[in-house]
Amino acid sequence: MALWITYEMTFYYVILLRLFTNARLLLRCAAMTETDCCVLDEEDFRRCCRLLLQRSEQLRDGWSWEVVQGSDEGYLRKTALRSVPDPQTSTCSSRPKQSKEEPDCASSLVPDSGRGELDEEDDGSCIVSEGSSVVLQYEYHILYSSSYSTPVLYFRAFTLEGRSLTLEEVWSFVHPNFRLCLQNSPLNALSQQEHPLLGQPFFYLHPCRTEEFMKLVLTAAEDKHRPMNYVLLWLSLVGPAVGLDVPLEYCIEPQPSDPE
Amino acid sequence: MADDKDVLRDVWFGRIPTCFTLNPDEATEREAEPYYLLLPRVSYLPLVTDKVKKHFLKVMKAEDVEMWFEYEGTPLKWHYPVGVLFDLHASNTVLPWSITVHFKSFPDQDLLHCPSNSVVEAHFMSSIKEADALKHKSQVINDMQKKDHKQLWMGLQNDKFDQFWAMNRKLMEYSTEEGGFRYIPFRIYQTSSDRPFIQKLFRPVSPEGSAHTLGDLLNEMYPDKKRYQVLIHGIEPLLETPLQWLSEHLSHPDNFLHICVVPAPTD
């Protein structure tokens, strides 16, 4: 039990840090929808997605709603190009590597999925020196998990030549601030998973802890009587870890003079 | 309930006779003999095919690369239990099940990578966690200690029925006034569908208090009836069987009821 508490505390600490940095976002979030605090049913999910979509269209942020053939289920989808430091040209200094067959920087920062023992990992500290950057294509899907009553983020990433990134590479592009949080979270929070609607391999952020940290944020919001868009709020917390930023403009009430 | 406990054992010890053949397009130093193995229905391909890998790597020039399996052109999803793969793809074919082994051209648009058993463990525990989220709002699984979780995994990995069920029985409990789990963890697979599976919220007991049956579940998920065969662990349970009972006795070790809907065999 003690080990679980440590994991949780680390996780919450980083989430709370992010909350403080997002304070402006929270305070300026206009009323978008009322949600029964912490529990998101499928109808709420769709409503939140519709609102997010409307705002995305106004901001030209690129989200679309995809419907599954032959059913009424769907998901939010967005593709984006993302520039990351090229692992080949950036140099790092970090703790001596554990495994001798992985000479390049990117994989030395990765939890060794071969052993799966997180407690033997390096502390993730690295000094990245200037190198060129490489552009990757990311595709993000937001689905609803009826098992956990939360949104879930699925994504995949490709080089511009169309090669799929491996879990190790994706992990290496997670910002160091988030790595500690994701690494110590139970069940290896970032992993490969079959897309439940499309059947293809995607990466995903495990949803089992979502309700807990959303509860923290939503009760705080309720205290201030600020209704929140659950999906938007959740996305602003988990998205940045995997390169998906949520512009502040999402939370600002569109002025009557805003162009359609 | 001596009979019910027997069912648990029968489910655990189910086996599928399988013949592994190397993909003929893969270069070998000498002829690759097929390899025969009895596969546990409730386990996962990477856990039970070490010997297959060793056997074929002996005749190949390749270094240690990721092995993957295919049946009649379809890559086999290792994260599905073995028995589900068989029921879904080969249930009405002649035994042994003929699987083709590959070491090259890993189909990364179809299959998840599995570099080690810890990936299988993560998937397995993830399913158990999700099942408990449905059954008990995660209360039982969260009350367990890390060593209890490990015991579930080790029980599966080492084929230890007693070790596994000593812990798993807690995940099968429910309070008598509830009449059953909160929701039944299930997945329905059908090869004719584009979707990999159907998974929805479904209660074991109706609002009026009557027990939902397998038939009720299928009516809800497939309102337009067709001629199909419904397989769980290779058998066709009666549609009148209560779903709660099925969930307690015919779930896989991951605590999900994996149900395969296949076209009825033409006689």
Automatic annotation (TrEMBL), chain A:
Q: Gene encoding this chain?
A: atg10
> Gene3D superfamilies of this UniProt entry?
3.30.1460.50
Membrane-crossing residues?
Answer: none
Q: Residue spans with biased composition (Polar residues)? A: 86-96
Species this chain originates from? Nothobranchius furzeri
Q: Which UniProt keywords apply?
A: Autophagy, Transferase, Ubl conjugation pathway
The uppermost taxa in this organism's lineage are: Eukaryota, Metazoa, Chordata, Craniata, Vertebrata
This chain belongs to the protein called Ubiquitin-like-conjugating enzyme ATG10
InterPro entries, per the entry: Atg3/Atg10
Q: Specify the domain of life of the species encoding this protein.
A: Eukaryota
From TrEMBL, chain B:
In which compartments does the protein localize?
Cytoplasm; Preautophagosomal structure membrane
Signal peptide residue numbers: none
In what residue span(s) does the Autophagy protein ATG5 UblB domain sit?
A: 183-261
Q: Which UniProt keywords apply?
A: Acetylation, Apoptosis, Autophagy, Cytoplasm, Immunity, Isopeptide bond, Membrane, Ubl conjugation
Recorded topology in the membrane: Peripheral membrane protein
The GO biological-process annotations, alphabetized, read as: apoptotic process; autophagosome assembly; autophagy of mitochondrion; cellular response to nitrogen starvation; immune system process; negative regulation of programmed cell death; piecemeal microautophagy of the nucleus
Listed under GO cellular component are: Atg12-Atg5-Atg16 complex; autophagosome; mitochondria-associated endoplasmic reticulum membrane contact site; phagophore; phagophore assembly site membrane
Self-association or partners: how does it assemble? Forms a conjugate with ATG12. Part of the minor complex composed of 4 sets of ATG12-ATG5 and ATG16L1 (400 kDa); this complex interacts with ATG3 leading to disruption of ATG7 interaction and promotion of ATG8-like proteins lipidation. Forms an 800-kDa complex composed of ATG12-ATG5 and ATG16L2. The ATG12-ATG5 conjugate interacts with RAB33A; this interaction is bridged by ATG16L1 and promotes ATG12-ATG5-ATG16L1 complex recruitment to phagophores. Interacts with TECPR1; the interaction is direct and does not take place when ATG16L1 is associated with the ATG5-ATG12 conjugate.
This molecule's function is given as:
Involved in autophagic vesicle formation.
Q: What is this protein called?
A: Autophagy protein 5
Can you name the source organism? Nothobranchius furzeri
